[in-house]
């Protein structure tokens, strides 16, 4: 997944453009900036690449989610459905607006289960937010049907699956809104940064204003701009956007390499009968950012994970026990431990985690291992890695837990 593997000349050239005139901010200073508008340029290029009408860059993927929600008018007490397997940014971005995150089971796609979403809808539900974890997607068609039926927004968090497609369109473009992260470990990086994309002109205008203190960006005199709404500072800097412009030129190459390496690893592991793979919905194509596979049970998955680590196979994750990505370890959320007092709507609206049943999620996650797919491996390295993984897994499967 990591774009940092391919950081080089293109990124440096764009950064140097910015450093030469010293205008590190995306707005204003027109006389000084020598025609360089890196953030704007990135937005136009990314929207064109994704084939959407609008892109709004932000300071991070987390702020992109908040900006997206705010742009669609989501606020205090509104319920937003998110999966149990995601990143903490999902609920952080929701709570930041006084809205209420509602956790919901995943299925064998490792993403939000449409059946579980149906059961989680209440009169307060406003948004369904699938998170396309580890390179692949939720069943978007079913989710869209549910959203249309109940008049809900579909917001895709495509932070971990940029370049993946559904119905021949890029992930993030199927819903009303799509969000991406360009943090340091993502497929394309800005160092820090994020983006929201949409075809909805109103949301795009709102996002443009919200991420910059409500400035309307009409005219060139910043001091004379109006502020139709309250906003915040979620801006990206010119330096970060410059890095992203360099990365964007390598996007197709990174994707192709990722998928090539993914295919080799998958092919190798496919020969093990007990290993199965997550379901990719019909008409979906993974980005190849991770290879995800199931072992027959939790015990075996744990042992395989430990042994892969011991064999020096780096970047394989057992998310079931992870602090950031799975609901099981989110005590801060469950116990509502914020630094100040959370808005009353959030406190009252949160699920009762002492009784809630997420055994369907546990069923899949406890058996899942995800391995990061790198771009910089040589073909020989990928082959060796696959062979080693196969050997480790076969070994674990042929020995009893006690031995
Ligand atoms: C990385 C990530 C985010 C947040 O992105 P940041 O840029 O790190 O704030 C949100 N959702 C998912 C699924 C992510 O992987």
From TrEMBL:
<dbReference type="InterPro" id="IPR000653">
    <property type="entry name" value="DegT/StrS_aminotransferase"/>
</dbReference>
<dbReference type="InterPro" id="IPR015421">
    <property type="entry name" value="PyrdxlP-dep_Trfase_major"/>
</dbReference>
<dbReference type="GO" id="GO:0008483">
    <property type="term" value="F:transaminase activity"/>
</dbReference>
<dbReference type="InterPro" id="IPR015422">
    <property type="entry name" value="PyrdxlP-dep_Trfase_small"/>
</dbReference>
<keyword id="KW-0032">Aminotransferase</keyword>
<dbReference type="InterPro" id="IPR015424">
    <property type="entry name" value="PyrdxlP-dep_Trfase"/>
</dbReference>
<keyword id="KW-0808">Transferase</keyword>
<comment type="similarity">
    <text>Belongs to the DegT/DnrJ/EryC1 family.</text>
</comment>
<protein>
    <submittedName>
        <fullName>DegT/DnrJ/EryC1/StrS family aminotransferase</fullName>
    </submittedName>
</protein>
<dbReference type="Pfam" id="PF01041">
    <property type="entry name" value="DegT_DnrJ_EryC1"/>
</dbReference>
<keyword id="KW-0663">Pyridoxal phosphate</keyword>
